[in-house]
Amino acid sequence: MERYFQKDIECAPREVIRDIQNKKLVEQVRHVWDHVPYYRALMEKKGVTPEDIRSIDDLYKLPFIAKADLRESYPYGLLGVPLRDCVRIHSTSGTTGKRVVAFYTKGDLDLWSDCCARAIAAAGGTEEDVCQISYGYGLFTGGMGLHGGSEKLGCLTIPTSSGNTERQIMFIQDLKTTILCCTPSYAAYLAETMKEMGLTPEDIPLKAGIFGAEAWTEEMRHSIEETLGIKAYDIYGLTELSGPGVAYECSAQDGMHINEDHFIAEIIDPKTGEVLPEGAEGELVFTSLDKKAFPLLRYRTRDICSLTRERCSCGRTFVRMQKPKGRTDDMLIIRGVNVFPSQIETVLMQLGYPANYQIVVDRVNNTDTFDVLVEMTPEMFTDDMVEVTRRRKELGDALKSMLGIRANIRLVAPKTITRSEGKAVRVIDRRKLNG
Ligand code: DLL
Q1: Which of 43, 106, 243, 292 has a CB 3.0–4.6 Å from the CB of 145, allowing a cystine?
Q2: Does position 335 have pLDDT exceeding 80, yes or no?
């Protein structure tokens, strides 16, 4: 049976959702114009005033806002309310440049919890469930975001945060955790550890997992589902818009429903900024309709995916986004060819390798080098050189046919590649380090 947290809105007729979006957009544009001078200046530069925005059909007239604007206005430049009305901040991991700091009012936190409660309910969650939150707590939004949703739904909530894998497994067993929330790479690590401990799906009380915060493939989903004996649901979000719960998967596991009463999604051509039709692949852009403390209009996420409004078997009417295949800034250009880490993951998993790999790119004598370190399973591990050579050739050929370029395959022993407790680091691009 499909479960919902707020069925009336999650399954509302399209006209109702459209009316809500029209009304909220007009109000939000006015709020931003009146309270966020930085964005008002962008609107003025484009010659747009609030009077020009009468419905979502006028959305295209508004200027985009991008990560660079967020950095430039750090820390308070995009605040939409007085600081005294804010009750929390979260922040992105900020690998390059200044961190982005996002602010929340009490109302913003409340709506964010609703979004996460919808996601947990869509994964089958009820008051009867024990929900273990193994996303990191702290500045990262994963832990506290799903925590809020889990409590709001009424699950017994275990705030383990990430790490301390043995204790995670002890709680899963002792407290009979039924829903696990963490990154897919950490779920794979937990699954691997439980398997090594000799636990079979029958010994593991889990029934569902809610995994997001990084790109992961269908192959990885199947592998985690099989090892843990669960259904694995995807969840999407970003700090700039609140955190997890911007979009969530339902029982159909066929794309994530975007919470359209709170966010409007568009797909644009990342080069020209042109809005693309339904079904086309491009960069995802979001407008937040309710956030008061940090209200972003037409925020460029840099995530690449497509949208569909085809009917979903779960009954929800919210538009669905396909699994993002990566970010425009994750995409590697190696010897002139575009490469997404997720393409490599697909090939590895199809050939039976675990999702423990690392891509190392460098530049030697003006030519890009492209190494893929692939961990073998204990069953594959051998010192038979004929077998190792056969495997390297098989993998090399499969990657060449997927990507169009040849990688240097380095098969490594089990447990060589560091496991991730949060977002996995798959790519080491030394070209950047060496300038
Ligand atoms: O990762 C929020 C989150 C926490 C989402 C827990 C889901 C679960 P940030 O750290 O700001 O926020 O990173 C946001 O992560 O723009 C995507 O590139 C990527 N991302 C998030 N969810 C997914 C997903 C959180 N399900 C950035 N699939 C986003 C692919 C994802 N990429």
Answers
A1: 243
A2: yes
